[in-house]
Amino acid sequence: MNIRVRLTLLFALLVASIMLVFSFSVYYLYNQYREQEFKKRLRDKALTTVRLFEDVGGITEELLHDISRNDLTTMYKEEITVYDAHNHVVYDSGEEPYHINANFLNQVRQGKDVSLRDGDKEIVGVRYIDQKKQVLVVVAYAIDKYGISILERLRTILITGWAVSLLMVVLAGWLFSSDALRPVSDIIEQVKNISARNIHERLKIGRQNDELAQLAATFNDLLSRLEDAFSSQKSFVSHASHELRTPLAIMMGQLEVSLLQKRTIEEYQETIKETIDEVKKMRDLVNGLLELARLNDEVSQNHFSELRVDDLLWQTRDILIHHCPDYDIQIEFEEFPEEEALLQIKGDSALLQTAFLNLMENGCKYSPDHHVSLTLRAQEDHIRISFSDRGVGISEADLPHIFEPFYRANSTQYVKGYGVGLALTRRIIELHNGRIWVFSQIGLGSQFVVTIPF
Ligand code: ADP
């Protein structure tokens, strides 16, 4: 059941129940009022009749009958019976007295206000003490033909009114819910038409600042993020294939040339060496890409262990210098912390080593003197490490992009690289809830700062 039908039904059910309660109350209260009024009339009639009966004394019953029948206040099927103290009928206005039980008469005699209902007949009893101090009981009954016909009419009006208004409520509810839900259907229609091909399209937000407009705006935000992710994924794939194609093309070229004619063993060895160099480049690139892809998925921090940052930095420095002996990496403390625990963080040592290695290597790689200096400082709740070099520097235009995968600044194209290292480094630092940022000036050098919370 869709929301529109559900809203209409709920609305109709609510209004129908309220109207039902209202109609029942009107009917019930009117019936109470009618009954009270009719009984009052019956009592008055009973008293008037018994008084007349007593006054006329010797008057014949026929005369009394005539008076009673021709009176304008006579009610439909009215009959009045007077009983003496021994429950004997002393007067009855009809042909046959109504047989009332003795209990009813006794209760009236005790002064109780009693009344009965027998089918359509309303029956009341009245106690009367005559001049001879005799206690008489007058029983009057009649049918409230007029009152009942009004009651029936009222019932018909209420039932018809209820049914008609129910129909109107369903109709109004249906129109109202369709109007209220139109923005939702609009959003559904628009969303249906958005796919990977036209992910740049956005939902119309409308002029009102209601919840639905907020929903559309939130959805547009989501689309923007998806579009960014989508385009960076696309450029990632095209960059990756481009970077992989270059060494493949070089290898193909080298192997084809060496096959053109017979070569000496040394020449073959040379070709194999060059091919292995290209394969190594590809392996490095593929490793970097795999690492980046792995870190972009949710990597859990459960396996993080306690490690000392300064030890890790020294180990990383040794590994790098082992591969590139002409690199000069200096590590110093801004001030050595009083407690050694202030150098400990929770993390993944292999990942952090990759990040530090990238930063150290970049500093050396992009500086003519191949020198980078690290400064370590333990602050209130984090460790701060800065990597400074006096290299080529990064232009203002390149700075915002250097953490994007495959981005390489123009000033550094002469050095080999793929532009994957910093993207990987930032992801690793973020995984450790840390931050990384850079200051740089072209021609003067760069400073990368990393902070990692304890
Ligand atoms: P790669 O070094 O393989 O090109 P990175 O992701 O490590 O990839 O760096 C991205 C780009 O950022 C580099 O190509 C370079 O242009 C710039 N860069 C990074 N570190 C430095 C640095 N210390 N000095 C100058 N430029 C740098």
What does this structure look like?
With 454 residues, the protein is an alpha+beta fold. 54% of the residues lie in helices and 18% in strands. Strands 2-1-5-4-3 form a five-stranded antiparallel sheet. A five-stranded mixed sheet has the order 7-9-10-12-11. Strands 6-8 form a two-stranded antiparallel sheet. Strand 4 and strand 5 (135-143) form a beta hairpin. Helix 7 (309-323) packs across helix 8. The longest helix has 54 residues, at 3-56. The protein starts with a helix and ends with a strand. The relative contact order is 0.07. The model has no long low-confidence stretch (mean pLDDT 87). The protein binds adenosine-5'-diphosphate. Adenosine-5'-diphosphate binds next to helix 8 and helix 9.
Task: Give the SSE map.
Layout: H1 3-56, H2 61-70, E1 76-83, E2 89-92, H3 102-109, E3 115-118, E4 121-129, E5 135-143, H4 145-192, H5 211-260, H6 265-296, E6 305-308, H7 309-323, E7 328-333, E8 344-347, H8 349-365, E9 371-378, E10 382-389, H9 421-431, E11 435-441, E12 445-453
Parallel strand pairs: 7-9
Antiparallel strand pairs: 1-2, 1-5, 3-4, 4-5, 6-8, 9-10, 10-12, 11-12
The structure holds adenosine-5'-diphosphate.
How many extended strands?
A: 12
Helix and strand element order: HHEEHEEEHHHEHEEHEEHEE
* Helical content band: 40-55%
Radius of gyration: 52 Å
Give a list of the ligands: adenosine-5'-diphosphate
**Outline, from the CA principal axes?**
rod-shaped
The helix tally amounts to: 9
Largest sheet strand order = 2-1-5-4-3
Please state the average pLDDT score: 87
Which structural class do you get from the secondary structure elements?
alpha+beta
Largest sheet: 5 strands, antiparallel
N/C terminus separation: 54 Å
Strand proportion, as a percent range, falls in 15-25%
Low-confidence segments = none
